[in-house]
What does this fold into?
Amino acid sequence: MGLHFDHKSKSGERAMEKERKRLEKLAEKKSKREAKREAEELEELERLTNPDTAPNLTAEKE
It folds into this structure.
């Protein structure tokens, strides 16, 4: 048998592997975005509730 017979028979397997990798990358990107958003929210809450820091007057005007 030649190489071309094996190549065609495994096309579905390769397609599933490619889709799995794509979904893993998407999930990784989503988790990074969510972690960054949570960190920004936490930083903002800390800035707003910390009594030791002076209030930022320019932020209140916006």
Summary: The mean pLDDT is 85. The chain has three helices and no strands. Helices lie at 3-9, 11-49, 57-61. The CA atoms of residues 6 and 20 lie 22 Å apart.
